[in-house]
Hints:
Helix content is 8%, strand content 46%. The chain is mainly beta.
Amino acid sequence: DAWPILRGVAGAKGFPIMLMNHYGRGVLYVLAIPENVSDLYNLPQPLLARIRQYVSGDFPVRLDAPPLVSIFAYDNGSFVVQSFRDEPVDVSVAVLGQGLRLTNVASNQTITANPPATTPANWRSVSAAARTTFTIHLEPHSYAAFRYGP
């Protein structure tokens, strides 16, 4: 009785990618892993963003990036973004809270926040906590550490 919350289509066949069900006092998510696990690297960025959104829940830092980019968050207001890609990439990081600053730990450079998104609300909109979004540039096979705060 699980609900498919993310679905895919291949040819004329549909299949669940992520399922959700209420269990006890929580919610259980099931991610369908392809037979060839390396196919996960071929998922499109919008789908990865939705998977990350469900998996991270109310986690303080969220990543929107293409495959082969990872985030490692710590509980002291800092995180590391690492690219395993062969080309440079710009990624989006959304930090819980408004009007926050983001600083590169190695260079002490302050990253400017993106303007707030103006997405019109509709009946399907889910109210979510406000986040400050930043765009980060990463070179191939590199990582950068950041700290955030007021």
